[in-house]
């Protein structure tokens, strides 16, 4: 429906910010590993009248009348996820990845029971056990980290921790881990001690969907993900599980932890899943990986140290200490933002700086790959990043880099 009263007229206060955000996204290089640019169709679905409807319950079993179209859309979304990932059961209602994880905890655990999960400071996620998150408040968290030498998982050590602490739930998955995750090994470790295994594939869901990263679907008990990172859908979450857990998972999402589903988001998720089922989506994921390799190699060739020595996926972690000992992640993030290159500061394993300062940068390629940038552009970007960091934020260098960024952005309109 064309807008009769456009936002610019109805709310002239908010409209300039919306325009400014369009310009910001167009005029910056987005390298935050968890962000992406959705298609026009995904965006259009978000702004539909599905937002007007309450639809508590599930297809065929709603608490309000008038839900026939909700049922059809949610069922389509579910069928598409099943096809995409090959799972037994899926719940597409979680409002976010964190909400999806909470629903799994409510299904798999009693308060006070133990979760074995990756330390946030080693690349984990706050919903996997941060003290001030519901996961850390309700459950006993035993963290595992990466090996100090390889900066990768040491599965034997994780197994020892599982044997010692007897968790009820083992969580795999990360927010800042550049290497392939052996999900089957995590399942073995969990099942050996009588625990269940939840794989949170939020970052790598797109890669998993097209077979470019091993899938946890067959070996794990629960798989959660967000829908907006490499999967390139709207902001949201979902849970996949074995049939035996289906009823419990559904009841822990609604009414356990959520009320009415966001049906406009579910419609938009369905559109994104349809896009992900197309052959072009695999080509896109392959290019994400090729771009990440090119960027990693170019950064390394300029003397930057990458945590674990490189990347297998869509992201890399730059350890700033060897090349720029005086530069923290916070400083680097700020100078790069001033240059219109958007990355995020990130803890590196065994970081001596505080989380607000950090010694690392996390850099990912999904968003720029969506815009059409290829390996040669990644080499240019590595050069621009390196120039800003070596100049320690010199305004003249920032000004010059902004010019190069503007040229690149113009070549690749959103
Ligand atoms: N905030 C997300 C990330 O950047 O990885 C995780 O939820």
Kindly describe this structure.
The strands form 4 sheets. A 7-stranded mixed beta sheet has the order 4-10-9-8-7-5-6, with helices on both faces. It is α/β, with parallel strands linked by helices and 414 residues long. It is built from 16 helices and 15 strands. Strand 5, helix 6 and strand 6 form a beta-alpha-beta unit. Helix 7 packs parallel to helix 8 and helix 15 (375-390) runs antiparallel to helix 16 (395-411). The chain folds into 2 domains: 44-276, Type I PLP-dependent aspartate aminotransferase-like (Major domain) (Aspartate Aminotransferase, domain 2, 3-Layer(aba) Sandwich), CATH 3.40.640; 280-411, Aspartate Aminotransferase, domain 1, CATH 3.90.1150. The site of D-serine has 4 residues, from loops.
Features:
414 residues; alpha/beta; Aspartate Aminotransferase, domain 2; Aspartate Aminotransferase, domain 1; 2 domains; 7-stranded mixed sheet; 4-stranded antiparallel sheet; 15 strands; 44% helix; binds D-serine
Largest sheet: 7 strands, mixed
Within CATH, the superfamily of the largest domain carries the name Type I PLP-dependent aspartate aminotransferase-like (Major domain)
How many strands in all?
15
Which CATH top level class of the largest domain fits? Alpha Beta
Ranges where pLDDT stays below 50 over 5 or more residues in a row are none
| Terminal CA distance | 23 Å
Strand content: 5-15%
Please tally the helical runs, counting DSSP H or I stretches of 4 or more residues: 16
Strand order of the biggest β-sheet:
4-10-9-8-7-5-6
Number of domains: 2
Bound molecules: D-serine
**Inertia-based shape:** globular
